[in-house]
From TrEMBL, chain A:
<dbReference type="GO" id="GO:0009432">
    <property type="term" value="P:SOS response"/>
</dbReference>
<protein>
    <submittedName>
        <fullName>ATP-GRASP peptide maturase, grasp-with-spasm system</fullName>
    </submittedName>
</protein>
<dbReference type="InterPro" id="IPR026455">
    <property type="entry name" value="GRASP_w_spasm"/>
</dbReference>
<dbReference type="GO" id="GO:0018169">
    <property type="term" value="F:ribosomal S6-glutamic acid ligase activity"/>
</dbReference>
<dbReference type="GO" id="GO:0005737">
    <property type="term" value="C:cytoplasm"/>
</dbReference>
From TrEMBL, chain B:
<protein>
    <submittedName>
        <fullName>Uncharacterized protein</fullName>
    </submittedName>
</protein>
């Protein structure tokens, strides 16, 4: 039995499930708001929520896509008892999650938070080229027009940021100095690019797509500001073996066996690493490049 | 249209909030509301959407 930890609304999960049906593989899909109770029946651990009920011994593989297993933790009236029981419940919950992660899996719930700053440090350590970056609370050392800023958080959506619109924190070029200090912000050298590369990594295999975003004013700084009228050209791409090798080392160091990775190929021929997202979207490059990555995931599980 | 987040917040924000982009449009919001989801036991979801093929069928022949 396959355990899929995902979101009720996640479209990507549906696409993988289509292939699980074709392969005739059985699965359980857990949604993001499900709360589980840990029970023991005949010495076997049973997880039970309003939607699902399964023994952890019956699970053969786990795909952590979104959300994760959450537990209904009980509260106790006596403060001292509550403290002991809180720790007891944590031990059980931690055991269940670690047991599930010890099975064949794609990514882990316990390792689902990315830290872009630490990832960049590790990328440098494995020998990947990374555009010079720094944190600052002022623009004193900013090279105007040649420095970008972007969010270090995974979530970049800002609800109700404008009267009629939500907002989104894309990558932006710094074009003027600020008089006042601000909250510590991530700055990075802007690389003149030949094209961008979006990769999908799964257990040592890498599938890549070159995105020619540099010729369009709308997409040249951040290709996610899509030009629907005249979309960027996207083609299959094969990374040089040494970059592929360094990606594998980096992903092993980060303890991710799956993820989406972004690079820039600069006009001077270097491959600059930008970031890794273990739960990133991959259906785009899968469709455009005919990689059938959803089939690869279903096949692995 | 100025984003209102920076003026509403008492604490300082990172500089990238100054460059906040608008997401979507009124029209796309209205379109999103019209997306029909169906509850589907087979896919174990309450949000299965009917999708059109990404590529035209003639391109795949």
């Amino acid at each position: 039995m396959i355990l899929i930890l995902s979101a009720n609304k996640d479209f990507t999960t549906n696409e993988v499930i289509k292939w699980l049906h074709i392969f005739d593989k059985k699965y359980i899909r857990v949604h993001e708001f499900e709360l589980f109770e840990i029970k023991v029946i005949d010495k076997k651990i049973l997880l039970e929520s309003q939607r699902n009920s399964f023994y952890i011994d019956d699970i053969n593989s786990v795909w952590f896509r979104r959300g994760g297993i959450k537990f209904n933790r009980l509260q106790f009236q006596n403060e001292s008892v509550n403290k002991i029981m809180d720790e007891t419940q944590f031990c059980l919950e931690d055991y269940v999650i670690k047991k599930l992660e010890s099975k064949r899996h794609i990514n882990k719930q316990s390792n689902n938070r990315t830290n872009k700053l630490l990832i960049l440090e590790k990328a440098v350590a494995v020998g990947l080229d990374v555009p010079t970056y720094f944190l600052a609370d002022n623009t004193d050392h900013i090279n105007l027009g040649k420095t970008i800023t972007k969010s270090i958080s995974e979530n970049i959506m800002v609800k109700s940021a404008f009267d009629d619109f939500d907002g989104i924190l894309y990558t932006s070029i710094i074009d003027k100095h600020e008089d006042e200090v601000f909250f510590p912000t991530f700055f990075q050298e802007k690389i003149e690019k030949e094209f961008e590369i979006r990769c999908f990594y799964l257990n040592g295999k890498v599938w890549s797509c070159a995105i020619f975003s540099q010729n369009d004013e709308q997409t040249k700084i951040d290709n996610r500001i899509y030009n629907y009228g005249k979309p960027n050209r996207n083609v299959r791409y094969t990374l040089p073996p040494e970059i592929h090798h360094k990606i594998c080392i980096l992903m092993t160091e980060l303890d991710y066996n799956c993820g989406s990775i972004d690079f820039i190929k600069s006009i001077d021929g270097k491959f600059y690493f930008l970031e890794v997202n273990p739960v990133g979207q991959f259906l785009g490059i899968s469709d455009i490049c005919n990689y059938a990555l959803e089939k690869e995931i279903a096949d692995y599980l | 249209m100025e984003n209102r987040i920076r003026s509403e917040e008492k604490n300082k924000l990172p500089l990238n909030f100054k460059y906040l982009n608008k997401l979507g449009s009124k029209k796309s919001k209205e379109l999103n509301k019209k997306i029909c989801y169906v509850k589907c036991d087979k896919f174990q979801t309450d949000f299965l959407t009917r999708v059109t093929p990404f590529k035209a069928f003639t391109r795949m022949l």
